[in-house]
Design brief:
Shape: globular
Number of helices: 6
Radius of gyration: 19 Å
Strand content: 15-25%
Helix content: 40-55%
Number of strands: 7
Strand order of the largest sheet: 2-4-5-7-6
Structural class: alpha+beta
Length: 217
Amino acid sequence: MSDASSPATTAAPDMLELAALLCSRVCHDLISPVGAIVNGLEVLDDDPKPEDREFALDLIRKSAKTASARLQFCRLAFGAAGSSGAQIDLGDAHTMAKGHIEDGKCSITWNLPRLLLPKNRVKLLLNMLVVAQHTIPRGGMLTVDPVGEGEAMSFRITSTGHNARLPQNISELLSGERGPAADAHAIQPYYTRLLAQACGLTVTLKPEGEAIIVTAS
């Protein structure tokens, strides 16, 4: 008989399933702004009044900007981002992070130096930001600080905001105590753990006072 108190586990996804789930995650991020563009174009097709036309054009502009920012972020956070052994400028990562995450509710304080880091470390940082954003569903501040220096640098992200909390199961997915469910939401923290392992690091998620801390060390 199995121990009912042991954590639930599922088999790790194979490479094909991992790729499919990451693609689903990217599509999930793009559905909303692309759908808004389609809605705006439908309004224009109906030969609207001038005020409705201006509203539709404004919706299309904002949604196209959001879709572009999310695509650029996802390309860096989930994509190949150059050849094996490539390095990525942390300044570029900052730009991508701001475009994707800052939305009027959530903002970023970036305390990292501008330097080149191995691409998996930068991809890990961007995925840690996504994890951290989930801890402040009503918005707030993400403060990014370095841990160490040079190419061995890792990261600490402090989430502060109203009702900051630990999202269900994410800590276990990051630590490996729980296997990933077969959905696009669970695959992102699982992928974050894979990136950390590739960098020889471990990602932890824990409360500290009223803040939530995401650390790679």
